[in-house]
């Protein structure tokens, strides 16, 4: 899908820190987290939420009262007169939300849409499905997070099996995959340099107030595992192949958001700091149980819609739950590994699902700004051997 007049004002894409699951945010509803961080983000940017014309939400893990996610959230952020869709597309949710918001603005540049993604993988709900004809009326149950991590119902395969399948087909060695993981960790360390100077460009702290009025602030990612070549070499494969815990991401909790509007509004809001043109999105699906291949397919479709090639792209960011993803992308496209995820990726800082892609897009925007603007590509896989991609351009 191609867009002609959908923009993000520079400075108007943000993310909370990501907190490893069962950590500090384990008992905080993702609905509350999204509202708290969004309110702070809009206030910090001196943006009046009454200017919003639509809210697009992205969630993948149900929370208490999330049946009313959009109107409830809109009221709590000071925009009670708006509504919009609540989108759930597994790990592709962020791009799906951006695509929905961009299509709305592309049709009417006077629209100003907030895309808000939020998820908590910690303490995932236990779903109970009535089954009156079973023995004694016993219900079926589903651990929403854990059971879906364990297997794709279409294939019966766990996500790690998809990484093993692609690694085996491509002939990726354990050593090559460890090298990718180590590179990604070192790139993430660059985002921490100078007292987290890069992360502070987009990261919105989480401020939680308890019943006694005491405030807890989370200003940086929590639960990052230090990575060394020696430590990676000591890990054993999880499924008898080459994939170890050092080559895959970890579940997390977090939220991310962005404002999408027409060019004139974007220019006004950016205060001379530049704008981000949303050019095209693309979605793709790989063969069954080959999820790490899907980001290349989605990227090809987004680039084709934009009339561009990898030769036009300055930087790529990926959602890479496995190091296999990035090695496959390099093998298929030739795009250099060291020009991908130059300030880190979900492989290192974790994966709350819905917000993961939007954090990576916010990082891509800021990385391009530091490089003087230009074209960037985000692409990332999602459950069901699918993926989503977005092409952007940062302009003065």
UniProtKB/TrEMBL annotation:
The keyword Transferase appears for this protein: yes
Keywords from the named record: Acyltransferase, Transferase
KW Cell inner membrane (keyword) present: no
Gene Ontology molecular functions: acyltransferase activity
Thiolase N-terminal domain segment(s): 16-262
Alphabetical list of InterPro entries matching this protein: Thiolase (IPR002155), Thiolase-like (IPR016039), Thiolase_C (IPR020617), Thiolase_N (IPR020616)
Main enzyme class: transferase
Domain (Thiolase C-terminal) ranges: 287-393
Known EC number: 2.3.1.-
SUPFAM superfamilies noted in UniProt: Thiolase-like
Family (UniProt): Belongs to the thiolase-like superfamily. Thiolase family.
Protein name: Thiolase family protein
Protein's organism: Spectribacter acetivorans
């Amino acid at each position: 899908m191609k867009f002609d007049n959908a923009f993000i004002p520079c400075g108007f894409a943000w993310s909370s820190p990501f907190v490893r699951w069962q950590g500090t945010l384990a008992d905080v509803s993702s609905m509350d987290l999204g509202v708290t961080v969004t309110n702070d983000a809009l206030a910090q940017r001196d943006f009046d939420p009454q200017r919003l014309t639509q809210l697009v939400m992205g969630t993948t893990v149900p929370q208490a009262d999330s049946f009313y996610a959009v109107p409830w959230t809109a009221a709590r952020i000071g925009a009670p007169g708006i509504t919009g869709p609540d989108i759930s597309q597994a790990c592709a949710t962020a791009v799906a939300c951006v695509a929905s918001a961009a299509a709305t603005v592309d049709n009417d540049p006077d629209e100003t849409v907030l895309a808000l993604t939020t998820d908590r993988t910690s303490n995932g709900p236990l779903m109970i499905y009535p089954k009156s004809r079973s023995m004694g009326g016993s219900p079926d149950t589903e651990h929403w997070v854990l059971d879906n991590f364990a297997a794709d119902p279409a294939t019966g395969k766990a996500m790690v099996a998809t990484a093993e399948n692609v690694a085996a087909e491509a002939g990726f060695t354990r050593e090559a995959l460890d090298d990718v993981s180590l590179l990604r960790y070192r790139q993430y360390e660059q985002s921490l340099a100078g007292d987290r100077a890069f992360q502070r460009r987009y990261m919105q702290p989480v401020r939680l107030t308890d019943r006694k009025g005491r405030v807890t602030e989370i200003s940086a990612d929590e639960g990052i595992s230090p990575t060394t070549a020696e430590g990676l070499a000591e890990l054993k494969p999880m499924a008898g192949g080459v994939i170890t815990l050092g080559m895959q991401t970890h579940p997390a909790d977090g939220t991310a958001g962005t404002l999408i509007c027409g060019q004139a509004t974007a220019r006004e809001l950016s205060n001379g700091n530049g704008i981000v043109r949303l050019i095209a999105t693309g979605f793709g699906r790989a063969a069954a149980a080959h999820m790490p291949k899907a980001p290349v397919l989605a990227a090809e479709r987004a680039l084709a819609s934009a009339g561009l090639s990898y030769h036009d792209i300055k930087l790529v960011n990926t959602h890479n739950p496995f190091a296999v993803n990035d090695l496959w992308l390099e093998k298929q496209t030739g795009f250099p590994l060291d020009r991908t995820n130059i300030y880190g990726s979900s492989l290192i800082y974790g994966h709350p699902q819905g917000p993961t892609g939007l954090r990576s897009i916010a990082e891509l925007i800021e990385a391009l700004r530091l490089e003087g603007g230009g074209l960037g590509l985000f692409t990332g896989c999602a459950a069901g051997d699918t993926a989503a991609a977005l092409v952007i351009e940062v302009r003065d």
